[in-house]
Amino acid sequence: MLASKGLALYHKLKEENAQKTVAQNLSEYADVKANLFVDQKKQGNKILENGPSDTVGIVCKDREGNIIVALSTGGIPMKMPGRVGDTPQWGSGGYAEDGCGAAATGYGEDLIKVLMTKSMVDRVNVEGGSSARRTQDQALEQVRVLESKVDGKGGVICLDKNGNPGIAFNTPRMAFSFCIEGDERGVVVANLFVDQKKQGNKILENGPSDTVGIVCKDREGNIIVALSTGGIPMKMPGRVGDTPQWGSGGYAEDGCGAAATGYGEDLIKVLMTKSMVDRVNVEGGSSARRTQDQALEQVRVLESKVDGKGGVICLDKNGNPGIAFNTPRMAFSFCIEGDERGVVVGIEPEDLKKI
């Protein structure tokens, strides 16, 4: 609403603009663009390269399960007069249905083409978002769709019907925070992810990290398995992962041992290390090639049965190693007595050829 003085000024400016030709208006618009980007090199291309900024999106769920989505927009640079972006278009900038809500940011034209938040909510409600891991994976997948279908840049935040958050983006950075009632961490903020490019997306995209697993065999054939865990992001209070559950994070039997890393819920479902040890002991691991093939097969089972991400290391009764993973990378090393290579190390998938 405008006061009478402000309203009079508005009408005056409107009349002045109406008297200008289209060419004059476009010329002035071009001047504005030129001034804004007069020294791109000095600005570090921060507007054109890093894209839209200052958008604020909020998704909230109350104790009765009511969902609220709220949005503001920072617009995009060099937009044409009259442009309507994603924020006012329901299903593009924001959407809520059946207890699930999502908000998006990025280039509005791209978000509109894929109906970013409508697609995100449908993905969660149709495919099911029953856990923090599941909803997070669906957010990551929605951003991949944005990029693959329209070469789009942006991000999305989401809450499923159980209040589990999903957050993903493919821009250099996106500030975010979330808070879940009863979560002892309180408000989780984006300080850790202030520069995704620098961090290498290591938590949101590549999953859990910093787990350490060790499998050792002494000269008498005794086998030892030891584990630590880095946990997973956004875990619920009281969660028990795979590490303390024998047969999931680690297992040893009949001279064979295995340790695993990845999303604990997935490893538990397939009893990852128990299955690995059984596979070696039953099918026989009489050579390095044989044991390695069985490790690769166990990871394929993890992926095919529960769409799981993770890795496993193993030693058979003869001391042959088996190492496999389906994550972007997994640091590993091994040393076999008498092997002239000494300590063999690796981290990338192609490093598995060293085994």
TrEMBL record:
Pfam families: Asparaginase_2 (PF01112). It catalyses: Cleavage of a beta-linked Asp residue from the N-terminus of a polypeptide. One of its GO terms (biological process) is proteolysis. Substrate binds at R83, V84, G85, D86, T105, G106, Y107, G108. It comes from the Eukaryota. The record marks D54, T55 as: Cleavage. It is an enzyme of class 3 (hydrolase). Its EC number is 3.4.19.5. InterPro entries: Ntn_hydrolases_N (IPR029055), Peptidase_T2 (IPR000246). Keywords: Autocatalytic cleavage, Hydrolase, Protease. One of its GO terms (molecular function) is hydrolase activity, acting on carbon-nitrogen (but not peptide) bonds, in linear amides. One of its GO terms (cellular component) is cytoplasm. The active site is at T55. This is beta-aspartyl-peptidase.
